[in-house]
Design brief:
Structural class of chain B: mainly alpha
Structural class of chain C: alpha/beta
Low-confidence stretches of chain B: none
Radius of gyration of chain B: 24 Å
Largest sheet of chain C: 6 strands, mixed
Order of helices and strands of chain C: HEHEHEHEEHEHHEHEHEEHHEH
Mean pLDDT of chain B: 86
Number of strands of chain B: 0
Number of strands of chain C: 11
CATH superfamily of the largest domain in chain C: Bordetella uptake gene, domain 1
Number of domains of chain C: 2
Mean pLDDT of chain C: 87
CATH topology of the largest domain in chain C: D-Maltodextrin-Binding Protein, domain 2
CATH class of the largest domain in chain C: Alpha Beta
Helix content of chain B: 55-70%
Low-confidence stretches of chain C: 1-20
Largest interface: A-B, 59 and 70 residues
Oligomer: heterotrimer
Order of helices and strands of chain B: HHHHH
Radius of gyration of chain C: 21 Å
Strand content of chain B: under 5%
Strand content of chain C: 15-25%
Largest sheet of chain B: none
Shape of chain B: flat
Helix content of chain C: 40-55%
Number of domains of chain B: 2
Distance between the termini of chain B: 64 Å
Chains: A mainly alpha, B mainly alpha, C alpha/beta
CATH architecture of the largest domain in chain C: 3-Layer(aba) Sandwich
C-alpha cells in the first residue's frame, strides 16, 4: 500500500463532523483547563479520558490530543496575566510574559504566545509525520549515561535565566537541587530529609513548588506594599501583536520548535525543560539580550515555541515504540489500550489508517488551536482589568484549590505556602526563581541517571563516555560552560570600564 | 568585613547552611543502609556533593560584590509592611489549620475576606461578593465537573 | 490534643445519631483514593470498576489519585481518615504486601486497614529483550551465574523489585542480591523501557504492563508465574518449570477502609462488589488487559494478602533486604 493510499484511508476516518467536533471540544477543554492554575494540561487530559471510552477510537484519541495541545497553550494565559503558570510547561513564559503584562502589553504577549504556539505546533506535527520512525529508533539509544549527559547539558540553561548575577543564579539552582532530594532514595528506598512525615516521603509536589515559587510571592509582595502598583498601566493594552513582531521572532520560534521536537522525542524530559532551553538559546543569540526578563516579546515567543514544539513530538515514541514520554502521553496510551490498540511498530502495519487519521487530525488541530486561542485571549482579557487588591486574594484562593486538586492532598497547600515565603525571600534578595525551578526538575533526573549508570557498569566511569551521543553532549556542555565563563568575564570588564 | 553588600550576606548564609548540612543535617536526616559497597551509590553522596557546591558558591559570593540594583530597592512600607507580612503568614497558618476541619469552601471565604481586608481594598463590597461567590464556583467546578474530592469539613457539607 | 478530643466527642455525639443510620449508608458520595498516578495499572483498574460499582452503590464514587512514595502517601491518607466508609482505598500489591514486607519505616502496617475485597489478580511475567540471546529461564539463570545481569523495577519496594529477586531465588541463584544488580526506575513504564533499550537484562512485572511490547515482538516473555498460561504470552508457566511456589507471586487490586470500618459497611461492600464484578463490560475490559477477575470476600481477601505478605516477608528477612532507615 502506498503512502497515498494510507493518506486517503486516514482522510476517510477524519473527514467527518464527529472527528472535527471532538478535536474542537478537546481544544476548548484544554485551553480552559490549562488556564486554571493547578488544573494543568495533565489533569485536563485525565479528566477527559473517561469520556472517550464510549467514542470511536480515532475521535477519542483526537479529543485527548486536542486537550493536550489546548492545555499547553492555555497554561500561558495565567502565566502572562497573573504570573501563575497554568501548567508546568508555561513557567518559562512568565519570565518575559508577566513583565509585558506589567507594562500594559498583556494582549501583545498573549497574541505572540498564540502565534508561536501554533507555529511550533505545525513544526512539531510535521516532524512527527516525517520523522516518527527514524526519531523513534534514535530515542531508544538513550540509556542512563546518555540521559545523564543530556541533563548535565540542560543544566547550563541556568546561566541563561540567572539574570544579572550568575552566582546568585547558581545559589538558587543548588537550593532547588537540595530541595529535590527530599523523599525516598531511588536506589535504596531510604528516607532523605523526610523527618518521618509520610507526606514528605513522596517528595515535594512539583506543581505545589512551582505555584508557590511564582504566584505566592506576588501575593506576599502585595502585602508588603499594597499601593505600589497604583498608577501603573495594567490592562490588556491596545498594542496587539503585529506581523513585524512575528517576523522578528521567527528564527527563535523555529529554533524553539526544533528544540521541542528533539527533547519531545526523547521519553522522560517533558515540555518545561524544553521551554527553558529554547528561552535561553533565544536570549543567547538575540540582539536584545539585555531586555530579556524585562518584557521582551521574543522571550515569550521562544518559551511558547519550546513547549508547544514538544506536544506533537512526544507522540513519536508513543506511536513508534509504545513508550510514553511523559505523564500526559501515559494517559493517552491508556486511551489507546482501552480501544484495543497497541501503540508500537506493529501499529504502523496493523492500524495504519488510524495512524494517518491521527496525522490528519493533528494538522487540523493547529488551525483550530489558532481560532480557539484567539477567542480565549479575548475571553480572559477581563482578568487584566481586575483591581489588584481583589485579584490577589482571588489568586490565593485559586491556587489553594488548584494545588489541592493536583494530588488531592492538603499537605501540598502547605508546601505551596512555604515555598511562597521562600520565593518572596528570594525576590527580596534578588535571587532569580527560574534556576531553582529548573534544578528542581532536572536534579532528580541527574542523580538517578548517574546512579543507574554506575549500577549498570558496576562502578566503572567509562560508561559515561560509551557512545557518540554521550560524546556529543559532553562536548556541548564543555563548549557552553566556556562560553558562559568568557561571557561573565567580558561582562565584568565592561562593567569596570 | 562589611555586611552591607547583598552578595556578601548571601555568601555567609550559604557557607553557614552548607556547614550545617555537613555537620548536622545530612548525618541526621539522610539514612543510608549499612551494606553499601560503593560510596558513590550511597544516598548520602549526592547531598554531600550539593553541600560542597553550596559552600563553593558561598565562597564565590563573598568575593564578588553585587551590582547595585537598577530599580533602587522599593521599601516604602517599613513597619506597616512587616505587620502586614506577619498577618498574611498568620492567615496562611490559620488556613492550613482550618482546611481539614471547616472544609475548603468556608476556609477559602474566610481567607479571601481576611486577605482583602488586610490589603485594605478600595472595593470592600466587591471583595465580599467575590469572597462568597468564587469559592462556591470553584467548588462546583472542581467537585462536580472535574470530580475532585474537595475537603468538606465536619460541619456544613455542600451537595 | 484537647481540640482533637473535643472533636471526637462531637463526632461521637453526631455518631450516636449515625450508628442507627448505617442502614442508610451511603448517604453521600464516597471518596475512593487511588494511591498511584493516572494511567497506571491501579488507576485503570479502579476507574474500570468504578462504573459498574457506582451503579451498584447508588451514590457517586469520587476518584482521587493521591500519589507518592510507592503508594504510601495515599494509603496513609486513608489510614488516617474516619472509619465511616466514606473514604476507601484501592489497595495494590505494591502498597499492601511488598511495601509492608520490605520497609521498616513504612508509616502503616496491614493492621491499619480492613480489606473488604480483592477483585483482580494480575499474572506476573518475566521478559527479556529479544536481542539479549536469552530464550528461557534456564538461559537467564546461566547468565546470572556468569555475572553482569541486571533487572529493572518501578522502584524500591515495588512488586517488580521483589518479583525479580524471588524468581532468581526460586531458581536456585544463591544470594540473588549480589549475583544480579537491581536498577530501579521511576514507574512501570520506565522499567519496561529500560529492558527495551538494554539498560537492564530482564524484568518481572504484571503481564498487562508488557502485553503490548510482547505483542509487538519488542520483548520476549520467558515465564509467567500463574498455573494457567496467559493469553498472548508464548512462555511456560511456573508450574511447567517445576516452581509452583511462584504462583503466589501475582499482582492484585483490592479495596480497603481504615481499620475500624464497621461490619455493616464491609458487608455492603461485599454485596456491591459481587454485583459489580458480574458486569459484562467490566469483565470484557479487564480480561482484554490480561487480568483475572477473582472476587474474594473480606475474610478471603485478608487471608490472601496476609499469605502473600508472610511469604514476601520471609524472603526479605532471609536475604536481608529489609529497609531500616
Amino acid at each position: 500500500m502506498s503512502i497515498y493510499d494510507s493518506i486517503l484511508l486516514g482522510l476517510s476516518l477524519v473527514a467527518n463532523i464527529e472527528a472535527f467536533l471532538s478535536l474542537f471540544i478537546g481544544i476548548i477543554v484544554g485551553v480552559i483547563g490549562g488556564a486554571i492554575p493547578g488544573l494543568s494540561a495533565t489533569m485536563a487530559v485525565a479528566l477527559a479520558l473517561p469520556f472517550t471510552f464510549a467514542m470511536a477510537p480515532i475521535n477519542g484519541i483526537l479529543l485527548l490530543l486536542g486537550v493536550y495541545k489546548g492545555g499547553i497553550f492555555g497554561g500561558s494565559i495565567p502565566a502572562i496575566l497573573i504570573k501563575t503558570p497554568g501548567t508546568p510547561a508555561s513557567s518559562a513564559t512568565i519570565l518575559d510574559g508577566y513583565p509585558m503584562a506589567e507594562k500594559g502589553e498583556a494582549g501583545r504577549a498573549l497574541g505572540m504566545a498564540l502565534w508561536a504556539s501554533c507555529t511550533a505546533d505545525v513544526v512539531s506535527n510535521l516532524a512527527l509525520i516525517i520523522f516518527a520512525g527514524w526519531l523513534a529508533s534514535f530515542a531508544l539509544n538513550f540509556g542512563p549515561p546518555e540521559f545523564f549527559a543530556l541533563i548535565l547539558f540542560s543544566l547550563t540553561i541556568i546561566a541563561g535565566v540567572s539574570g544579572d548575577s550568575l552566582l546568585r543564579g547558581a545559589l538558587s539552582a543548588i537550593a532547588g537541587l537540595l530541595l529535590a532530594t527530599v523523599g525516598l532514595d531511588l536506589v535504596y528506598g531510604t528516607n532523605r530529609f523526610t523527618f518521618g512525615d509520610p507526606n514528605l516521603m513522596g517528595g515535594l509536589n512539583f506543581i505545589a513548588v512551582l505555584i508557590g515559587l511564582f504566584a505566592m510571592p506576588e501575593v506576599i509582595a502585595m502585602a508588603w506594599d499594597p499601593t505600589g502598583h497604583l498608577g501603573k498601566a495594567r490592562s490588556l493594552g491596545k498594542a496587539w501583536v503585529t506581523f513585524a513582531d512575528y517576523k522578528r521572532c521567527f528564527k527563535s520560534i523555529i529554533r524553539g520548535s526544533l528544540i521541542g521536537v528533539f527533547l519531545g522525542s526523547i521519553p522522560g524530559i517533558g515540555a518545561a525543560p524544553s521551554a527553558f532551553l529554547s528561552y535561553s538559546e533565544a536570549r543567547r543569540t538575540s540582539k536584545n539580550k539585555a531586555n530579556f526578563g524585562k518584557g521582551e516579546i521574543e522571550g515569550v515567543a521562544a518559551a511558547e515555541a519550546g513547549n508547544n514544539g514538544v506536544a506533537g513530538a512526544t507522540l513519536i515514541p508513543l506511536l513508534a515504540l509504545g513508550v510514553p514520554g511523559d505523564v500526559i502521553t501515559a494517559i493517552i496510551i491508556g486511551a489507546f489500550m482501552i480501544h484495543g490498540l497497541q501503540p508500537g511498530p506493529m501499529m504502523f502495519v496493523l492500524n495504519v489508517d488510524i495512524i494517518y487519521g491521527l496525522f490528519m487530525g493533528l494538522i487540523i488541530s493547529s488551525v483550530l488551536l489558532f481560532f480557539v486561542g484567539s477567542v480565549a485571549i479575548r475571553g480572559f482579557r477581563f482578568v487584566a482589568d481586575i483591581p489588584k487588591r481583589i485579584l490577589m486574594p482571588a489568586v490565593l484562593i485559586l491556587c489553594i484549590y488548584g494545588v489541592f486538586a493536583v494530588n488531592n492532598n492538603i499537605f501540598d497547600v502547605g508546601v505551596m505556602f512555604a515555598m511562597g515565603w521562600l520565593g518572596y525571600a528570594m525576590l527580596r534578595a534578588r535571587i532569580p526563581a527560574a534556576p531553582f525551578l529548573i534544578a528542581f526538575i532536572l536534579g532528580p533526573l541527574l542523580e538517578d541517571n548517574f546512579r543507574q549508570s554506575t549500577l549498570m557498569s558496576g562502578g566503572d566511569f567509562t560508561i559515561f563516555l560509551r557512545g557518540p551521543i554521550t560524546w556529543f553532549f559532553w562536548a556541548l556542555t564543555i563548549v557552553t560552560c566556556i562560553a558562559i565563563v568568557r561571557g561573565a568575564g567580558r561582562a565584568r570588564k565592561a562593567q569596570k570600564m | 568585613m562589611a555586611f552591607d553588600d547583598l552578595n556578601r550576606r548571601l555568601g555567609v548564609f550559604a557557607l553557614a547552611f552548607a556547614g550545617f548540612l555537613v555537620v548536622f543535617g545530612i548525618p541526621n536526616w539522610v539514612y543510608s543502609p549499612s551494606n553499601i559497597q560503593k560510596l558513590i551509590l550511597s544516598p548520602l553522596f549526592w547531598p554531600y556533593v550539593l553541600a560542597g557546591l553550596l559552600a563553593l558558591v558561598g565562597l564565590g559570593l563573598l568575593f564578588v560584590r553585587a551590582k547595585p540594583d537598577p530599580e533602587t530597592e522599593v521599601h516604602p512600607s517599613g513597619r506597616a509592611g512587616w505587620r502586614r507580612l506577619v498577618s498574611l503568614a498568620v492567615i496562611m497558618v490559620l488556613t492550613m489549620l482550618l482546611l481539614p476541619r471547616l472544609g475548603m469552601v468556608w476556609t477559602s471565604m474566610l481567607a479571601f475576606v481576611a486577605t482583602a481586608g488586610m490589603l485594605r481594598t478600595r472595593y470592600p463590597k466587591a471583595a465580599i461578593i467575590c469572597a462568597i461567590i468564587m469559592p462556591l464556583v470553584l467548588y462546583a467546578f472542581f467537585a462536580h465537573v472535574a470530580g475532585v474530592a474537595i475537603p468538606q469539613g465536619y460541619y456544613v457539607r455542600l451537595p | 490534643m484537647k481540640f482533637t478530643k473535643l472533636m471526637s466527642a462531637a463526632a461521637f455525639a453526631v455518631g450516636l445519631g449515625a450508628t442507627a443510620a448505617w442502614a442508610d449508608y451511603p448517604e453521600r458520595p464516597i471518596n475512593m483514593v487511588i494511591p498511584y498516578g493516572a494511567g497506571g495499572a491501579t488507576d485503570i483498574s479502579a476507574r474500570t470498576i468504578a462504573e459498574p460499582l457506582g451503579s451498584a452503590v447508588g451514590k457517586p464514587l469520587v476518584m482521587a489519585n493521591v500519589t507518592g512514595a510507592g503508594g504510601a502517601t495515599g494509603s496513609v491518607a486513608v489510614q488516617n481518615a474516619r472509619a465511616d466508609g466514606y473514604t476507601m482505598l484501592f489497595a495494590r500489591v505494591g502498597s499492601h504486601s511488598v511495601n509492608p514486607a520490605m520497609k521498616a519505616t513504612l508509616p502503616y502496617t496491614l493492621d491499619d486497614f480492613r480489606f473488604v475485597t480483592v477483585y483482580e489478580i494480575n499474572p506476573v511475567a518475566c521478559a527479556v529483550s529479544p536481542s539479549s540471546g536469552i530464550n528461557s529461564m534456564e538461559d537467564l539463570i546461566a547468565k546470572v551465574k556468569e555475572g553482569g545481569v541486571t533487572y529493572s523495577s518501578s522502584g524500591v519496594g515495588s512488586l517488580l523489585h521483589i518479583a525479580a529477586v524471588m524468581v532468581l531465588d526460586e531458581f536456585g541463584v544463591e544470594n540473588p542480591l549480589q549475583q544480579a544488580t537491581h536498577i530501579p526506575q521511576k514507574g512501570g513504564g520506565a522499567a519496561a523501557t529500560a529492558v527495551l533499550n538494554g539498560t537492564a537484562t530482564f524484568l518481572c512485572t504484571n503481564s498487562s504492563a508488557v502485553a503490548s511490547f510482547v505483542a509487538n515482538g519488542q520483548l520476549k516473555p520467558i515465564m509467567v508465574t500463574t498455573a494457567q498460561p496467559v493469553v498472548g504470552f508464548d512462555a511456560p508457566t511456573a508450574n511447567e518449570l517445576g516452581k509452583p511456589a511462584l504462583n503466589q507471586l501475582v499482582g492484585w487490586t483490592g479495596i480497603a477502609g481504615p481499620a475500624g470500618l464497621p461490619d455493616d459497611v464491609a458487608d455492603k461492600w461485599g454485596a456491591w462488589m459481587a454485583a459489580a464484578t458480574k458486569d459484562a463490560g467490566f469483565l470484557e475490559k479487564m480480561q482484554a488487559r490480561g487480568s483475572v477477575i477473582e472476587l474474594m470476600d473480606p475474610a478471603a481477601a485478608n487471608a490472601f494478602i496476609r499469605g502473600q505478605y508472610t511469604k514476601f516477608r520471609a524472603l526479605v528477612d532471609r536475604l536481608g533486604m529489609r529497609i531500616e532507615g
